[in-house]
Amino acid sequence: MNEGQKKEKCSVCEQKQENGIHICDIYICESCEREIVNSDVTDEFYRYYLQKLRKLKHMLLNIS
Ligand SMILES: [Zn+2]
């Protein structure tokens, strides 16, 4: 029941990743964070990310 490594689900790629950061209640894995930081990534990824954030924002607003 007690796993040595606690993996959390990334809010962007929706995969369980060990390394990541929390922004408020949002968890973003290392690789997604890196992609966002190195933002000469494609519009597509950025749009996808914004979509995710919008969804998360809705969730957060519904809770509060
Ligand atoms: Zn991710």
What does this molecule look like?
The protein is of the alpha+beta class. It is 45% helix and 19% strand. It is built from 2 helices and 4 strands. A two-stranded antiparallel sheet has the order 1-2. The protein has a two-stranded antiparallel ribbon with strand order 3-4. It is flat and about 35 Å long. Bound molecules: zinc ion (ZN). InterPro entries: Sigma-G_inhibitor_Gin. This is Sigma factor G inhibitor Gin. It comes from Anaerobacillus isosaccharinicus.
Structural class: alpha+beta
Strand-and-helix sequence, N→C?
Answer: EEEEHH
* Overall average residue pLDDT: 77
- Give the N-terminus to C-terminus distance in angstroms: 30 Å
Protein name: Sigma factor G inhibitor Gin
Pfam family, one: Gin
Organism: Anaerobacillus isosaccharinicus
Features:
two-stranded antiparallel ribbon, 64 residues, 2 helices, binds zinc ion, 19% strand, 45% helix, alpha+beta, two-stranded antiparallel sheet
What's this, in brief?
This is Sigma factor G inhibitor Gin. It comes from Anaerobacillus isosaccharinicus. The protein has two helices and four strands; from the N terminus they run ββββαα.
Which helices and strands occur, and which strands form pairs?
Elements: E1 8-9, E2 16-17, E3 20-23, E4 26-29, H1 30-37, H2 43-63
Antiparallel strand pairs: 1-2, 3-4
